[in-house]
Design brief:
By secondary structure, this protein is mainly beta. The protein has one domain. 10% of the residues lie in helices and 60% in strands. It is built from one helix and eight strands, in the order αββββββββ. The strands form two sheets. A five-stranded mixed barrel has the order 2-3-4-8-5. The protein starts with a helix and ends with a strand.
């Protein structure tokens, strides 16, 4: 399963890379979790190196869960970096889940030509080892995190 997780991360990274001749480039990546198990967890929101967000020190009533890559269409997470939060959502690593990645690229070359591409991929099944959490709601618990 870890190889599958690395492959998914590689797909997202490859979709973000652009050609050297492009003068302007816009990339938008949408990550969603479907069919996972509904969970409520608390943890700390941190920024990923790729620009996304992570929930670290994640725990529920049963104890520690580790960390989750957060999949959210709401840009509200940028204001919560460093906060301790409660998140309700779907976890891809608990039960049969699906992770969908859609990347849209728009580039303008030196000669003025515009190119638009869309890349879609999906991973499904028992996704243990792929800690993705689709965010349905976020509530700030504290403005500081351990």
């Amino acid at each position: 399963m870890h190889k599958l997780g690395y492959a998914l991360i590689a797909v997202v990274a490859a979709c973000s890379l652009g050609a050297a001749q492009d003068l302007e480039k816009k990339t938008q990546t949408k990550l969603s979790v479907e069919d996972g198990r509904d969970i409520t967890v608390t943890g700390c929101v941190e920024r990923n190196v790729d620009g996304g967000y992570m929930l670290t020190h994640a725990a529920n009533k049963s104890g520690m869960l580790g960390s989750y890559v957060l999949a959210s269409e709401d840009d509200d997470l940028k204001d919560r970096v460093g906060d301790r939060v409660e998140i309700k959502g779907k976890a891809a690593d608990q039960g049969d889940g699906r992770i969908k990645v859609e990347t849209k690229n728009e580039s303008k070359a030196a000669d003025g030509d515009k190119k638009k591409t869309t890349t879609k991929s999906e991973v499904k099944g028992d996704l243990s080892g792929l800690p993705f959490l689709g965010v349905n709601s976020v509530k700030t618990i504290a403005k500081v995190c351990p």
